């Protein structure tokens, strides 16, 4: 039995649409219950991967918090700096032998960070995919430019910005110029190219360290120089970086060989707005998203098979956006009994579990508390275009599951990218 009832709403976002997912002994349905504008700030999130341009935009200059990188559990202090963007105030410590995905990292496809190794980092391979971590939390890890750009800074990229990085999802490696760059940050913070500027850059709340660099299988200049990769290529073998010592600060003009190991800072830009400038005129156009409809669903759950259904959302937008799912309580729970139906990526007939489909082959992922992009949920929209996003759901139940209503609140979020 499948019953679909459409509720039509129209509101301008940033918008959160919440849906209740309920699974009883036999019934499995979803209905729209609440929706609200994005009002969160830095202090309302706990993970790096929750960051969005609007959360940064909602935060005050100087706002500071500590966030967890879900990829390895490392915690970082972050701050909204004077340039209006949110920055890590510690160096990235992500170590190797990890596969980064678009669900947790600033990558467009899966990328595997190599294991930590001091050897190499020389001109025998300008595009070596290398990283090294000396177990120094202050200085962080060192990445060749290929590794810092998650494999996208290869020989084919001779100018412009690399499309990916090892930064968490929602964060990026700074470009050499423009919005979110070291040059913009340094100018806004009043950091001058002299000894006073260097001291200010290395002091709280910015805390850039003299981390040195890795070259020719050796860690050099720790305590004397700071060099931090940007995402911008200068030539086929050279990339731009921030560089400073005790008396100079060069945020934009320095460039060096890509094989060198430099530390990384990540930035989350505020807004994702379009700025049009003409003389003294500056106009900012806020991104607009509209979720027009979601679908209610009733369906009979079969204890001998995977029960499938879906949630749909129709979105209109004037730019690039993502549609994400999350749940404050990922497991389906009951008010009457203690049993649960856990969020699961492994749906097995005869056991309790439910998940969100991640491809057409029937693979599922467990929903989490972090808003996450699942299969077929990213699009480029236009004001006059409505795109229907379908979230396929699967559930399995044990024949011994006590009869009751098992539910959780699923939040459908539309955000600009």
Structure description:
6% of the residues lie in helices and 39% in strands. The chain has 417 residues and is mainly β.
Compact description:
By secondary structure, the protein is mostly beta strands. Helices cover 6% and strands 39% of the residues.
List the helices and strands and how they pair.
Elements: E1 2-8, E2 15-24, E3 28-37, H1 53-58, E4 64-68, E5 75-80, E6 86-88, E7 98-100, E8 111-113, E9 131-133, E10 141-143, H2 145-148, E11 160-161, H3 182-189, H4 195-202, E12 213-215, E13 218-220, E14 226-233, E15 238-244, E16 249-250, E17 255-257, E18 267-268, E19 274-278, E20 281-285, E21 289-299, E22 307-317, E23 320-327, E24 332-334, E25 340-341, E26 353-357, E27 364-365, E28 378-380, E29 386-396, E30 405-416
Antiparallel strand pairs: 1-21, 2-3, 2-30, 4-5, 5-6, 6-18, 7-8, 9-10, 11-14, 12-13, 14-15, 15-16, 15-17, 19-20, 21-22, 22-29, 23-28, 23-30, 24-25, 24-30, 26-27, 26-29
Helix content: under 10%
Unreliable spans are 1-36, 272-285, 380-384
Evaluate the radius of gyration.
24 Å
Number of separate helices: 4
- Give a short account of the largest sheet: 7 strands, antiparallel
What oligomeric state is this? single chain
Which structural class fits the helix and strand makeup?
mainly beta
State the total count of DSSP E strands. Answer: 30
Mean pLDDT: 82
The separation of the N and C termini measures 38 Å
The shape is elongated
Beta-strand portion reads 35-45%
């Amino acid at each position: 039995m499948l019953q679909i009832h459409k509720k039509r709403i129209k509101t301008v976002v940033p918008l959160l649409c919440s849906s209740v997912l309920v699974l009883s002994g036999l019934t499995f349905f979803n209905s729209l219950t609440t929706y609200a504008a994005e009002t969160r700030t830095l202090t309302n999130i706990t993970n790096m991967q929750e960051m969005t341009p609007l959360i940064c935009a909602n935060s005050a200059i100087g706002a500071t918090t500590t966030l967890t990188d879900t990829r390895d559990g490392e915690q970082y202090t972050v701050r909204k700096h004077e340039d209006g963007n949110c920055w890590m105030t510690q160096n990235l410590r992500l170590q190797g032998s990890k596969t980064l995905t678009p669900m947790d990292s600033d990558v467009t496809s899966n990328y595997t960070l190599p294991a930590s190794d001091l050897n190499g980092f020389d001109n025998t391979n300008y595009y070596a995919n290398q990283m090294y971590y000396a177990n120094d939390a202050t200085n962080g890890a060192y990445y060749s430019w290929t590794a810092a750009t998650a494999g996208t800074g290869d020989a084919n990229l001779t100018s412009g910005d690399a499309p990916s990085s090892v930064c968490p999802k929602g964060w990026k490696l700074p470009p050499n110029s423009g919005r979110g760059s070291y040059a913009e940050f340094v100018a806004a913070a009043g950091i001058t190219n002299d000894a006073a500027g260097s001291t200010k850059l290395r002091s709280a709340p910015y805390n850039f360290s003299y981390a040195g660099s890795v070259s020719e299988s050796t860690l050099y200049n720790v305590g004397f120089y700071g060099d931090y990769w940007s995402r911008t290529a200068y030539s086929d073998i050279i990339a731009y970086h921030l560089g400073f010592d005790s008396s100079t600060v060069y945020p934009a003009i320095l460039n060096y060989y890509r094989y060198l190991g430099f530390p990384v800072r990540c930035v989350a830009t505020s807004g994702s707005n379009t700025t049009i400038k003409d003389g003294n005129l500056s106009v900012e156009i806020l991104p607009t998203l509209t979720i027009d409809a979601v679908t209610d669903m009733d369906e009979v759950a079969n204890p001998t098979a995977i029960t499938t259904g879906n949630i749909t959302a129709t979105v209109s937008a004037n730019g690039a956006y993502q549609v994400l799912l999350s749940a404050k309580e990922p497991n389906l729970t009951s008010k009457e009994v203690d049993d649960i139906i856990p969020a699961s990526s492994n749906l097995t007939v005869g056991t309790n579990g439910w998940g969100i489909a991640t491809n057409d082959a029937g693979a599922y992922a467990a929903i989490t508390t972090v808003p996450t992009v699942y299969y077929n949920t990213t699009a480029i929209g236009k004001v006059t275009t409505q795109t229907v996003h379908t979230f396929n759901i699967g559930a399995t139940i044990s024949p011994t599951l006590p009869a009751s209503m098992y539910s959780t609140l699923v939040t459908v979020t539309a955000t600009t990218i």
